[in-house]
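hey so i finally got around to running the thing on that chain from the lab meeting. sorry it took forever, my laptop kept dying and i had to restart like 3 times. anyway pasting the input first so we r on the same page abt which one it is
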Amino acid sequence: TLSPTPVACSEPVDVMFVIDRSSSMTSKVSSTDSKTKLDYAKIAAKAFITQIQTTSAAKAGNVRAGVTTFGKTLSSTAASNSTIPLTSSLSTVASKIDTISLLESGTCVE
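ok and heres what got predicted. didnt touch it at all, straight out
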């Protein structure tokens, strides 16, 4: 388990999560674990959000985060059901990360 120590920032910070939801993310990390690579990617992204939510910069609204996904295609528009543009509502981003699922096979390499 990682325990990073948040560092105070005097400038606004933008964080964009780009999460792979291609079929390669269905693989289990180990034969004794029921979680997939996608499960762990989502856990890590949400843990990062939890850490930055405690900073004074985030509490002052100086941290924005967003999320987009890729698989066979890139989900880069706000109309995509797996994309949220940069926002200071970090809990909204965390909630959206929970809804990301494996939808496609293949990976877009363009």
